[in-house]
Amino acid sequence: MQSPLHLISHTHYCCGGDVTIDPTAAIAAGVVLQAEAGSQIVIGANACLGAGVVFQARGGVLRVEDSVSLGASALVVGQGKIGAGACIGPASTLIDPAIGPGEVVAAGSLVAVGQVSTVPSQPSSARANGFAQASNGANNGTSNGFVAKSRPETNGAAVAQTNGQSKQVYGRDQVNQLLSNLFPHRQPLN
Prior knowledge:
It is built from two helices and 19 strands. It has helices spanning 124-127, 172-182; strands at residues 14-16, 18-21, 26-27, 32-35, 40-43, 48-49, 54-64, 69-70, 75-82, 87-88, 93-95, 98-99, 104-105, 110-112, 115-117, 131-133, 146-148, 157-162, 165-170. Strands 1, 2, 4, 5, 7, 9, 11, 12, 14 and 15 form a ten-stranded mixed sheet that branches. A five-stranded parallel sheet has the order 3-6-8-10-13, with no helix packed on it. It comes from Vasconcelosia minhoensis LEGE 07310. This is Carbon dioxide concentrating mechanism protein.
């Protein structure tokens, strides 16, 4: 005998604080909805929150209107509104969002106070240290002229030089990618 399919409301997600979810919203596993004291999160009808989406309401109401779709691992922080029918790409970060109805935000974007910054591809020399400075003085969509590196085409192993000997370091690329995602505007130390 087959086990019955579980309703979407039985998946595992975490709510904390003042959170209101419409019963028709689809919420994947691993979603975190956290509202600080004095703040509120409101999820509208037919909204779809992908796996690993994180909401952190601060300083007011964070509203997701009807039929909004958020891709996996999106991060939404602060207060604001995502308009009806908007589509937020996976791994995007929204800070105090002001997304209009039907707007589309590309995957991997950073949206802060109405400004959008995406992660463009770079030449391989820029991938070496994780940053590329704009060559013509333009900021290329970022606030400080630095662009976070895109995912390199490697197996995750990096070669480190210690005392003239080469040593493979597995996972270094993934750690560097994580750091550039967590701190997109950090400057290189070298």
